[in-house]
Amino acid sequence: MDDHKLRVFCTVAETKSFSKASEMIRLTQPAVSLQIQALEEIYGAKLFNRSGCIITLTPAGELLYKYAKEINALYTSVEKEMGEVTGVVKGVVTIGASSTIGNYVMPHVISEFRKKFPKVTIHLVIGNTKTVVEYLNAASIDIALVEGDVKKQKLLAEKLIPDEMVLIMSPHHPWAKRANVSVFDVAKEPFIFREEGSGSRQIIEKYFIKHGISPQNIKIAFIMGSTESIKSAVEEGLGVAIVSKWAARKEVRHNSLKTATFKEERLMRDFSLLYRKAKDSSFTLDRFIGFLKKYPFDRLLNS
Q1: Residue of 1, 93, 99, 257 with fewest CB within 10 Å of its CB?
Q2: pLDDT digits (tens, 9 = 90+) for 52-91
Q3: Is this model's pTM higher than 0.90 or not?
Q4: CA separation (Å) from 129 to 59, 227, 272?
Q5: In this structure, is residue 61 part of a structural domain?
């Protein structure tokens, strides 16, 4: 059964963009256009109106979209019921994840899942929380794993694991042997921040504000576009920073970074699992979600 063209068509219809659809389904834009052209030849009708950057469905496109959604849902139901009958776990699961959980947690989970179910192919798409949620709403990914607060929209959301954010510093920093540091001392130290709009930055700024410190009064030494670049700068002694405990795990183990918590209170957030209603999930996706919920994250963090 080849439902690929219909899935491509639905993604273009839902995103109203050939370029965004190509990004979501990991095809080149010309390849997406070819899939749509093939459908237009099959049905002998134009499916989209294109006016500059604006894409809308034609009446024929509206009709096809209605049935394509039903057909795709039937494919999912067949796959799920066949899996339940045969017990065979195979197929493709596509995961969207925001940067911290995507880069520092999911590779380990995916590796262990694949050892148990080698016939499953897993695609991991990493982006910011807003983008990942858009992908899930457009059904371009099966589940999403994101950091911090999430507006559920029409999605199901569950807290997966708590995530503590910690202060990181060079092993040569005067605070390197401290178990905890006051947030008021941190505000006086050269500080390395993520860029504006970063979810991590927003959480850190809220923490400072909660303790009466305006972000404008923080001594910002550098603004970096990724956690990896922040860690490198801190290793070089260019300042201190706050990152997820998960992100600093490898460097702490190799003694290239030191961490401390805060005297006032721990800085916590959650990693959340987002997915669509149960009828949209496949047999294999159900197995992966079950594996994820039972995964011993504490063991991994402390290893």
Answers
A1: 1
A2: 777 899 999 999 999 888 887 777 777 777 777 777 778 8
A3: no
A4: 34, 15, 11
A5: yes
Q: What is the tally of structural domains in the chain?
A: 2
Rounded distance, CA 73 to CA 79, Å? 10
| 45-52 contacts, C-beta under 8 A, 24 or more apart | 47/9, 48/12, 48/13
The answer to whether residue 182 is domain-embedded is yes
Residues of the chain with confidence (pLDDT) below 50: 1
Residues 263 and 170 in one domain: yes
Domain co-membership, 83 together with 167: no
User: What CATH code is carried by the domain that includes residue 25?
Assistant: 1.10.10.10
For residue 243, give the 3-state DSSP assignment: strand
> What is the DSSP-derived secondary structure letter of residue 130?
H
The single-letter code of the amino acid at 210 is: K
Q: Is residue 37 part of a domain?
A: yes
Domain boundary among 66, 87, 108: 87
Q: Are residues 74 and 172 in the same domain?
A: no
**For 170, how many CA atoms within 13 A lie in the half-sphere containing its CB?**
15
pLDDT confidence of residue 179: 94
Domain boundaries, position 42: 1-87
pLDDT of residue 141: 86
Q: Give the model's pLDDT for residue 264.
A: 93
What is the predicted pLDDT for the residue at 185? Answer: 94
Boundary (domain end) residue, out of 55, 87, 119 = 87
Alpha-carbon gap, residue 300 to 246, rounded angstroms: 10
Q: Going by C-beta distance under 8 Å and a sequence separation of 6 or more, which residues neighbour residue 300? A: 105, 108
Please name which of 191, 246, 179 lies closest in space to residue 219, comparing C-alpha atoms: 191
* Domain-embedded: residue 114: no
User: What pLDDT is attached to residue 281?
Assistant: 74
